[in-house]
Design goal:
alpha+beta; hydrolase activity; hydrolase; 2 domains; 8-stranded mixed beta sheet; Aminopeptidase; disordered N terminus; metal-binding; metal ion binding; 4-stranded antiparallel beta sheet; elongated; Alpha-Beta Plaits
Protein backbone atom coordinates (compact mmCIF):
# COMPACT_ATOMS: atom_id res chain seq x y z
CA UNK A 1 0.00 0.00 0.00
CA UNK A 2 1.05 3.64 -0.37
CA UNK A 3 2.39 4.36 3.11
CA UNK A 4 3.95 7.69 3.95
CA UNK A 5 3.15 11.28 3.03
CA UNK A 6 5.36 14.35 3.32
CA UNK A 7 4.43 14.90 6.94
CA UNK A 8 5.52 11.36 7.78
CA UNK A 9 9.14 10.30 7.34
CA UNK A 10 10.20 13.57 5.74
CA UNK A 11 9.09 15.50 8.82
CA UNK A 12 11.32 13.36 11.03
CA UNK A 13 14.55 13.74 9.09
CA UNK A 14 17.03 16.57 8.63
CA UNK A 15 19.49 16.49 5.79
CA UNK A 16 23.04 16.77 7.06
CA UNK A 17 25.76 16.56 4.43
CA UNK A 18 24.98 13.52 2.33
CA UNK A 19 23.09 11.78 5.13
CA UNK A 20 20.20 12.40 7.50
CA UNK A 21 19.45 12.29 11.19
CA UNK A 22 16.63 10.36 12.81
CA UNK A 23 14.97 11.39 16.03
CA UNK A 24 17.17 9.12 18.14
CA UNK A 25 16.47 6.71 20.96
CA UNK A 26 16.29 9.01 23.96
CA UNK A 27 13.58 6.98 25.67
CA UNK A 28 14.72 3.52 24.64
CA UNK A 29 14.74 1.01 27.49
CA UNK A 30 15.25 -2.22 25.54
CA UNK A 31 18.86 -3.18 24.96
CA UNK A 32 19.91 -4.96 21.78
CA UNK A 33 21.38 -8.44 22.20
CA UNK A 34 22.90 -8.94 18.75
CA UNK A 35 26.66 -8.53 18.77
CA UNK A 36 28.68 -6.22 16.56
CA UNK A 37 30.59 -9.29 15.39
CA UNK A 38 27.36 -10.94 14.23
CA UNK A 39 26.34 -7.78 12.39
CA UNK A 40 29.64 -7.86 10.50
CA UNK A 41 29.09 -11.53 9.65
CA UNK A 42 25.66 -10.63 8.25
CA UNK A 43 27.22 -7.89 6.12
CA UNK A 44 29.82 -10.31 4.77
CA UNK A 45 27.23 -12.97 3.97
CA UNK A 46 24.98 -10.50 2.15
CA UNK A 47 27.92 -9.15 0.19
CA UNK A 48 28.72 -12.66 -1.05
CA UNK A 49 25.08 -13.18 -2.04
CA UNK A 50 24.46 -9.70 -3.53
CA UNK A 51 24.68 -10.70 -7.20
CA UNK A 52 22.23 -13.57 -6.80
CA UNK A 53 19.79 -11.39 -4.88
CA UNK A 54 19.89 -8.69 -7.54
CA UNK A 55 19.10 -11.30 -10.19
CA UNK A 56 16.13 -12.57 -8.17
CA UNK A 57 14.86 -9.03 -7.65
CA UNK A 58 15.08 -8.09 -11.34
CA UNK A 59 13.36 -11.32 -12.35
CA UNK A 60 10.43 -10.78 -10.00
CA UNK A 61 10.25 -7.12 -11.01
CA UNK A 62 9.96 -8.07 -14.69
CA UNK A 63 7.25 -10.65 -13.97
CA UNK A 64 4.82 -8.93 -11.57
CA UNK A 65 1.52 -10.53 -10.58
CA UNK A 66 -1.64 -9.03 -9.11
CA UNK A 67 -3.23 -10.15 -5.85
CA UNK A 68 -4.20 -13.86 -5.71
CA UNK A 69 -2.49 -14.35 -9.11
CA UNK A 70 1.05 -14.68 -7.71
CA UNK A 71 1.63 -18.25 -8.91
CA UNK A 72 5.04 -17.66 -10.52
CA UNK A 73 6.34 -15.66 -7.56
CA UNK A 74 5.03 -18.24 -5.10
CA UNK A 75 6.76 -21.00 -7.05
CA UNK A 76 10.10 -19.15 -6.93
CA UNK A 77 9.77 -18.70 -3.17
CA UNK A 78 8.77 -22.31 -2.53
CA UNK A 79 11.70 -23.69 -4.55
CA UNK A 80 14.21 -21.35 -2.92
CA UNK A 81 13.06 -22.23 0.61
CA UNK A 82 12.96 -25.96 -0.11
CA UNK A 83 16.52 -25.76 -1.37
CA UNK A 84 17.58 -24.13 1.91
CA UNK A 85 16.06 -26.90 4.00
CA UNK A 86 12.81 -25.22 5.04
CA UNK A 87 9.65 -27.30 5.38
CA UNK A 88 7.40 -25.66 2.78
CA UNK A 89 3.62 -25.45 2.57
CA UNK A 90 1.91 -23.89 -0.44
CA UNK A 91 -1.54 -22.78 -1.55
CA UNK A 92 -2.52 -21.24 1.78
CA UNK A 93 -5.06 -18.49 1.20
CA UNK A 94 -4.80 -19.08 -2.54
CA UNK A 95 -1.17 -18.51 -3.46
CA UNK A 96 0.39 -18.08 -0.02
CA UNK A 97 3.60 -19.91 0.87
CA UNK A 98 4.95 -20.78 4.31
CA UNK A 99 8.47 -21.99 5.10
CA UNK A 100 9.32 -23.42 8.53
CA UNK A 101 12.75 -24.01 9.99
CA UNK A 102 12.96 -25.53 13.48
CA UNK A 103 16.32 -25.07 15.12
CA UNK A 104 16.06 -26.26 18.70
CA UNK A 105 14.38 -24.63 21.65
CA UNK A 106 13.62 -20.95 21.68
CA UNK A 107 11.13 -18.33 20.51
CA UNK A 108 8.91 -18.68 17.46
CA UNK A 109 9.23 -15.81 15.00
CA UNK A 110 6.94 -15.28 12.00
CA UNK A 111 8.28 -13.04 9.23
CA UNK A 112 6.07 -11.85 6.39
CA UNK A 113 6.82 -10.67 2.85
CA UNK A 114 3.95 -9.70 0.53
CA UNK A 115 4.11 -10.77 -3.12
CA UNK A 116 1.55 -8.85 -5.17
CA UNK A 117 2.08 -5.97 -7.59
CA UNK A 118 -0.03 -2.99 -8.68
CA UNK A 119 -2.30 -2.31 -11.63
CA UNK A 120 0.01 0.50 -12.70
CA UNK A 121 1.96 0.97 -15.93
CA UNK A 122 5.66 1.38 -15.15
CA UNK A 123 7.34 4.50 -16.52
CA UNK A 124 10.80 4.22 -14.96
CA UNK A 125 12.59 3.38 -18.19
CA UNK A 126 14.72 0.81 -16.38
CA UNK A 127 16.17 -1.96 -18.57
CA UNK A 128 14.30 -4.49 -16.42
CA UNK A 129 11.03 -2.54 -16.29
CA UNK A 130 7.76 -4.45 -16.38
CA UNK A 131 5.84 -4.67 -19.64
CA UNK A 132 3.24 -7.08 -18.28
CA UNK A 133 -0.46 -6.69 -19.00
CA UNK A 134 -3.16 -9.07 -17.75
CA UNK A 135 -6.85 -9.63 -18.24
CA UNK A 136 -8.76 -9.17 -15.00
CA UNK A 137 -11.90 -10.92 -13.79
CA UNK A 138 -14.14 -8.16 -15.17
CA UNK A 139 -12.65 -8.58 -18.66
CA UNK A 140 -10.59 -5.40 -18.60
CA UNK A 141 -6.90 -5.48 -19.51
CA UNK A 142 -4.56 -3.89 -17.00
CA UNK A 143 -0.86 -3.08 -16.84
CA UNK A 144 0.97 -4.66 -13.91
CA UNK A 145 4.12 -3.45 -12.17
CA UNK A 146 5.83 -3.58 -8.78
CA UNK A 147 5.34 0.07 -7.86
CA UNK A 148 5.23 -0.57 -4.11
CA UNK A 149 8.37 -2.62 -3.56
CA UNK A 150 6.91 -6.04 -2.87
CA UNK A 151 9.50 -7.48 -5.24
CA UNK A 152 12.14 -6.15 -2.84
CA UNK A 153 10.24 -7.58 0.14
CA UNK A 154 10.37 -11.07 -1.35
CA UNK A 155 14.05 -10.73 -2.22
CA UNK A 156 14.95 -9.52 1.28
CA UNK A 157 13.16 -12.49 2.82
CA UNK A 158 14.91 -14.99 0.55
CA UNK A 159 18.28 -13.41 1.30
CA UNK A 160 17.62 -13.54 5.03
CA UNK A 161 16.42 -17.15 4.76
CA UNK A 162 19.74 -18.19 3.20
CA UNK A 163 21.76 -16.63 6.00
CA UNK A 164 19.56 -18.15 8.70
CA UNK A 165 19.95 -21.58 7.07
CA UNK A 166 23.73 -21.20 6.90
CA UNK A 167 24.19 -19.83 10.42
CA UNK A 168 22.04 -22.20 12.43
CA UNK A 169 24.73 -22.31 15.11
CA UNK A 170 24.03 -18.61 15.80
CA UNK A 171 20.34 -18.88 16.68
CA UNK A 172 17.77 -21.17 18.20
CA UNK A 173 14.02 -21.39 18.00
CA UNK A 174 11.60 -21.63 15.09
CA UNK A 175 11.52 -19.33 12.05
CA UNK A 176 8.28 -19.16 10.05
CA UNK A 177 8.53 -17.33 6.73
CA UNK A 178 5.20 -16.20 5.25
CA UNK A 179 4.90 -15.16 1.61
CA UNK A 180 1.53 -13.43 1.59
CA UNK A 181 -0.74 -12.77 -1.39
CA UNK A 182 -3.02 -9.80 -2.07
CA UNK A 183 -1.78 -7.17 0.37
CA UNK A 184 -2.85 -4.45 -2.05
CA UNK A 185 -6.40 -5.77 -1.88
CA UNK A 186 -6.24 -5.90 1.94
CA UNK A 187 -7.45 -9.47 1.65
CA UNK A 188 -4.41 -11.73 1.64
CA UNK A 189 -3.52 -11.91 5.33
CA UNK A 190 -7.07 -12.72 6.39
CA UNK A 191 -7.36 -15.24 3.55
CA UNK A 192 -4.35 -17.13 4.90
CA UNK A 193 -5.72 -17.10 8.45
CA UNK A 194 -9.17 -18.20 7.24
CA UNK A 195 -7.50 -21.00 5.28
CA UNK A 196 -6.11 -22.48 8.48
CA UNK A 197 -2.68 -20.86 8.69
CA UNK A 198 -2.45 -21.46 12.44
CA UNK A 199 -4.94 -24.32 12.78
CA UNK A 200 -4.42 -26.77 9.91
CA UNK A 201 -0.69 -26.87 9.24
CA UNK A 202 0.90 -27.83 12.55
CA UNK A 203 2.53 -24.44 13.04
CA UNK A 204 3.49 -23.36 16.56
CA UNK A 205 1.98 -20.14 17.91
CA UNK A 206 4.41 -17.29 17.20
CA UNK A 207 5.92 -15.13 19.92
CA UNK A 208 6.89 -12.47 17.37
CA UNK A 209 5.69 -11.17 14.01
CA UNK A 210 7.84 -8.94 11.79
CA UNK A 211 7.10 -7.16 8.52
CA UNK A 212 9.28 -4.91 6.35
CA UNK A 213 8.22 -2.36 3.74
CA UNK A 214 9.96 -0.09 1.30
CA UNK A 215 9.65 3.69 1.48
CA UNK A 216 11.04 6.42 -0.80
CA UNK A 217 13.45 7.61 1.86
CA UNK A 218 17.18 7.29 1.17
CA UNK A 219 18.94 3.92 1.12
CA UNK A 220 20.44 3.44 4.59
CA UNK A 221 17.41 4.79 6.45
CA UNK A 222 15.41 2.42 8.67
CA UNK A 223 12.31 3.22 10.72
CA UNK A 224 11.53 1.27 13.88
CA UNK A 225 8.90 3.18 15.82
CA UNK A 226 6.41 1.96 18.44
CA UNK A 227 2.72 2.70 18.80
CA UNK A 228 -0.03 3.34 16.22
CA UNK A 229 1.52 3.66 12.78
CA UNK A 230 -1.05 2.99 10.07
CA UNK A 231 -4.80 3.51 9.74
CA UNK A 232 -7.57 0.97 9.56
CA UNK A 233 -9.12 0.68 6.12
CA UNK A 234 -12.18 -0.54 4.23
CA UNK A 235 -12.75 -1.19 0.53
CA UNK A 236 -16.44 -0.76 -0.32
CA UNK A 237 -18.20 -1.21 -3.67
CA UNK A 238 -21.49 0.68 -4.09
CA UNK A 239 -23.58 -0.58 -7.02
CA UNK A 240 -26.28 1.87 -8.13
CA UNK A 241 -29.12 0.27 -10.06
CA UNK A 242 -31.17 2.09 -12.67
CA UNK A 243 -33.19 1.64 -15.83
CA UNK A 244 -31.12 1.82 -18.98
CA UNK A 245 -32.16 3.23 -22.33
CA UNK A 246 -31.39 5.48 -25.26
CA UNK A 247 -29.47 8.66 -24.55
CA UNK A 248 -31.97 10.65 -26.61
CA UNK A 249 -34.87 9.67 -24.34
CA UNK A 250 -33.66 10.11 -20.75
CA UNK A 251 -37.25 10.42 -19.54
CA UNK A 252 -37.65 6.71 -20.24
CA UNK A 253 -34.74 5.81 -17.98
CA UNK A 254 -33.56 6.09 -14.41
CA UNK A 255 -29.96 7.14 -14.82
CA UNK A 256 -27.51 5.45 -12.41
CA UNK A 257 -24.65 7.63 -13.70
CA UNK A 258 -26.40 10.70 -12.30
CA UNK A 259 -27.01 8.87 -9.03
CA UNK A 260 -23.34 7.88 -8.78
CA UNK A 261 -22.14 11.39 -9.63
CA UNK A 262 -24.28 13.01 -6.94
CA UNK A 263 -23.25 10.38 -4.43
CA UNK A 264 -19.53 11.01 -5.00
CA UNK A 265 -19.92 14.73 -4.33
CA UNK A 266 -22.16 14.24 -1.30
CA UNK A 267 -19.83 11.66 0.26
CA UNK A 268 -17.34 14.47 0.82
CA UNK A 269 -19.62 16.03 3.41
CA UNK A 270 -19.40 12.91 5.57
CA UNK A 271 -15.85 13.71 6.69
CA UNK A 272 -16.21 17.48 6.41
CA UNK A 273 -19.42 17.77 8.40
CA UNK A 274 -20.01 14.64 10.50
CA UNK A 275 -16.55 13.69 11.81
CA UNK A 276 -14.82 15.62 14.59
CA UNK A 277 -11.94 17.64 13.09
CA UNK A 278 -9.51 16.10 15.61
CA UNK A 279 -10.20 12.60 14.29
CA UNK A 280 -8.39 10.90 11.42
CA UNK A 281 -10.79 10.17 8.57
CA UNK A 282 -10.21 9.80 4.83
CA UNK A 283 -12.88 8.91 2.26
CA UNK A 284 -11.64 8.38 -1.29
CA UNK A 285 -13.53 7.36 -4.41
CA UNK A 286 -10.99 5.54 -6.53
CA UNK A 287 -13.17 4.45 -9.45
CA UNK A 288 -16.54 5.00 -11.12
CA UNK A 289 -17.50 2.38 -13.69
CA UNK A 290 -20.61 2.81 -15.82
CA UNK A 291 -21.62 2.16 -19.40
CA UNK A 292 -19.65 1.88 -22.62
CA UNK A 293 -21.24 3.98 -25.38
CA UNK A 294 -21.89 7.72 -25.64
CA UNK A 295 -25.56 7.36 -26.48
CA UNK A 296 -26.59 4.61 -24.08
CA UNK A 297 -27.70 5.21 -20.49
CA UNK A 298 -26.55 2.10 -18.60
CA UNK A 299 -28.58 0.07 -16.14
CA UNK A 300 -26.01 0.27 -13.36
CA UNK A 301 -23.04 2.27 -12.09
CA UNK A 302 -20.32 1.05 -9.74
CA UNK A 303 -18.59 3.37 -7.26
CA UNK A 304 -15.45 2.07 -5.51
CA UNK A 305 -14.82 3.70 -2.13
CA UNK A 306 -11.84 3.51 0.23
CA UNK A 307 -11.91 4.55 3.91
CA UNK A 308 -9.07 5.25 6.38
CA UNK A 309 -9.60 5.61 10.12
CA UNK A 310 -8.16 4.96 13.58
CA UNK A 311 -11.32 5.10 15.71
CA UNK A 312 -13.90 2.34 15.07
CA UNK A 313 -16.72 4.83 15.71
CA UNK A 314 -15.39 7.01 12.90
CA UNK A 315 -15.45 3.96 10.62
CA UNK A 316 -19.07 3.21 11.56
CA UNK A 317 -20.09 6.82 10.92
CA UNK A 318 -18.51 6.89 7.47
CA UNK A 319 -20.09 3.58 6.45
CA UNK A 320 -23.50 4.69 7.73
CA UNK A 321 -23.13 7.99 5.87
CA UNK A 322 -22.29 6.25 2.59
CA UNK A 323 -25.39 4.04 2.87
CA UNK A 324 -27.67 6.89 3.91
CA UNK A 325 -26.56 9.16 1.07
CA UNK A 326 -26.64 6.41 -1.57
CA UNK A 327 -30.06 5.08 -0.59
CA UNK A 328 -31.47 8.60 -0.39
CA UNK A 329 -30.25 9.50 -3.87
CA UNK A 330 -31.64 6.28 -5.34
CA UNK A 331 -35.04 6.97 -3.79
CA UNK A 332 -34.95 10.55 -5.06
CA UNK A 333 -34.50 9.27 -8.61
CA UNK A 334 -37.41 6.87 -8.32
CA UNK A 335 -35.83 3.56 -7.46
CA UNK A 336 -38.07 1.18 -5.49
CA UNK A 337 -36.93 -0.35 -2.23
CA UNK A 338 -35.95 -3.63 -3.86
CA UNK A 339 -33.63 -1.78 -6.25
CA UNK A 340 -31.68 0.35 -3.81
CA UNK A 341 -27.86 0.24 -4.05
CA UNK A 342 -25.97 -2.93 -3.19
CA UNK A 343 -22.95 -2.69 -0.87
CA UNK A 344 -20.03 -5.08 -1.06
CA UNK A 345 -17.53 -4.91 1.80
CA UNK A 346 -14.21 -6.12 0.41
CA UNK A 347 -10.78 -5.64 1.94
CA UNK A 348 -10.66 -4.60 5.61
CA UNK A 349 -7.94 -4.06 8.18
CA UNK A 350 -7.71 -2.62 11.66
CA UNK A 351 -5.10 0.05 12.51
CA UNK A 352 -1.52 -1.19 12.64
CA UNK A 353 0.09 -0.78 16.07
CA UNK A 354 3.74 -1.61 16.74
CA UNK A 355 4.84 -3.05 20.08
CA UNK A 356 6.80 -0.31 21.88
CA UNK A 357 9.46 -2.54 23.46
CA UNK A 358 10.01 -4.56 20.31
CA UNK A 359 10.39 -1.39 18.23
CA UNK A 360 12.91 0.03 20.71
CA UNK A 361 14.93 -3.16 20.74
CA UNK A 362 14.99 -3.31 16.94
CA UNK A 363 16.02 0.35 16.79
CA UNK A 364 18.99 -0.38 19.04
CA UNK A 365 19.98 -3.46 17.04
CA UNK A 366 19.67 -1.75 13.66
CA UNK A 367 21.75 1.18 14.86
CA UNK A 368 24.65 -1.30 14.93
CA UNK A 369 23.99 -1.94 11.23
CA UNK A 370 23.22 1.50 9.75
CA UNK A 371 24.44 3.76 12.55
CA UNK A 372 22.32 5.73 15.01
CA UNK A 373 21.93 8.49 12.44
CA UNK A 374 20.27 6.01 10.09
CA UNK A 375 17.50 4.90 12.46
CA UNK A 376 14.25 6.84 12.82
CA UNK A 377 12.62 5.78 16.09
CA UNK A 378 9.93 8.45 16.39
CA UNK A 379 7.39 8.66 13.58
CA UNK A 380 3.84 10.06 13.56
CA UNK A 381 0.94 7.86 12.56
CA UNK A 382 0.05 7.89 8.85
CA UNK A 383 -3.13 7.29 6.86
CA UNK A 384 -1.68 4.47 4.78
CA UNK A 385 -2.86 0.96 5.65
CA UNK A 386 -1.61 -2.62 5.84
CA UNK A 387 -2.92 -6.07 6.65
CA UNK A 388 0.29 -7.77 7.86
CA UNK A 389 -0.79 -7.65 11.52
CA UNK A 390 -3.95 -9.59 10.68
CA UNK A 391 -1.66 -12.59 10.22
CA UNK A 392 -1.71 -12.90 14.00
CA UNK A 393 -5.19 -14.37 13.60
CA UNK A 394 -6.50 -15.52 16.97
CA UNK A 395 -3.08 -15.10 18.61
CA UNK A 396 -3.65 -11.75 20.32
CA UNK A 397 -0.48 -11.69 22.42
CA UNK A 398 2.04 -11.77 19.58
CA UNK A 399 4.62 -8.97 19.79
CA UNK A 400 4.62 -7.18 16.44
CA UNK A 401 6.91 -4.69 14.72
CA UNK A 402 6.67 -3.25 11.22
CA UNK A 403 9.93 -1.82 9.89
CA UNK A 404 10.35 0.70 7.08
CA UNK A 405 13.42 0.59 4.82
CA UNK A 406 14.55 3.44 2.58
CA UNK A 407 14.99 2.46 -1.07
CA UNK A 408 15.58 5.75 -2.92
CA UNK A 409 18.90 6.85 -4.37
CA UNK A 410 20.23 9.17 -1.62
CA UNK A 411 21.22 11.85 -4.12
CA UNK A 412 17.82 11.75 -5.80
CA UNK A 413 16.20 11.97 -2.37
CA UNK A 414 18.43 14.91 -1.40
CA UNK A 415 17.64 16.81 -4.59
CA UNK A 416 13.93 16.27 -4.06
CA UNK A 417 14.09 17.52 -0.48
CA UNK A 418 16.12 20.57 -1.44
CA UNK A 419 13.59 21.38 -4.18
CA UNK A 420 10.82 21.30 -1.58
CA UNK A 421 9.12 18.30 -3.19
CA UNK A 422 9.37 15.95 -0.22
CA UNK A 423 9.85 12.45 -1.56
CA UNK A 424 11.10 11.98 -5.13
CA UNK A 425 8.15 9.67 -5.83
CA UNK A 426 5.45 7.85 -3.92
CA UNK A 427 4.35 4.25 -3.75
CA UNK A 428 1.97 3.26 -6.56
CA UNK A 429 3.50 5.96 -8.77
CA UNK A 430 4.63 4.85 -12.27
CA UNK A 431 8.13 6.12 -11.44
CA UNK A 432 8.60 4.26 -8.15
CA UNK A 433 12.15 2.86 -8.09
CA UNK A 434 13.89 0.54 -5.68
CA UNK A 435 17.53 1.55 -5.97
CA UNK A 436 19.60 -1.61 -6.43
CA UNK A 437 21.73 -0.65 -3.42
CA UNK A 438 18.62 -1.20 -1.30
CA UNK A 439 18.58 -4.94 -2.10
CA UNK A 440 21.60 -5.86 0.07
CA UNK A 441 20.74 -3.23 2.70
CA UNK A 442 17.16 -4.51 3.07
CA UNK A 443 18.46 -8.07 3.34
CA UNK A 444 20.83 -7.00 6.12
CA UNK A 445 17.98 -5.24 7.94
CA UNK A 446 15.73 -8.30 7.68
CA UNK A 447 18.49 -10.59 8.96
CA UNK A 448 19.59 -8.37 11.85
CA UNK A 449 15.96 -7.87 12.92
CA UNK A 450 15.44 -11.64 12.90
CA UNK A 451 18.68 -12.54 14.68
CA UNK A 452 18.02 -9.91 17.32
CA UNK A 453 15.04 -11.96 18.47
CA UNK A 454 16.25 -15.51 17.71
CA UNK A 455 19.98 -15.18 18.34
CA UNK A 456 21.42 -17.40 21.05
CA UNK A 457 21.32 -15.62 24.38
CA UNK A 458 18.53 -13.24 23.32
CA UNK A 459 15.87 -13.21 26.05
CA UNK A 460 12.22 -13.62 25.13
CA UNK A 461 10.75 -10.16 24.81
CA UNK A 462 7.99 -9.41 27.29
CA UNK A 463 4.86 -9.07 25.18
CA UNK A 464 2.80 -5.97 25.80
CA UNK A 465 -0.78 -5.50 24.75
CA UNK A 466 -1.08 -3.22 21.72
CA UNK A 467 -2.36 0.22 22.64
CA UNK A 468 -5.50 1.01 20.66
Amino acid sequence: MGIWNRTGIAATMLLVGSSFVGTGHANAQQQSHISAEMVEQVRASVKEDASRLETIFKDIHQHPELGFMETRTADIIAKELEGLGFEVKTGIGGTGVVGIMKNGDGPVLAYRADMDANAVEEATGLPYASKVRVEREDGTVSPVAHMCGHDAHVTWMLGMAKIMAEKKDSWSGTLILIAQPAEELILGAQAMVDDGLWTDHGLPTPDYLIGLHTAPGPVGMVVSSGGPKMAGTDQIDVLFKGVGGHGSMPQMTKDPVIMAAYAVTQYQAIVARTIEPQQTAVLTVGSIQAGVDNNVIPASALVKVNLRWYDAKVRERMIAGIKSISDGIARTYGMPEDMLPEYTMKGYSTPLVNDDEMAERHAEALAKLVGKEGVVSQLPAATGSEDVHLLKGPNEDVAFNYLIVGVADPEVFRASMEAGKGFPYSAHNPNFIVDLRAIPVGTEVATVATLELLGKGSPLLKVTKAKK
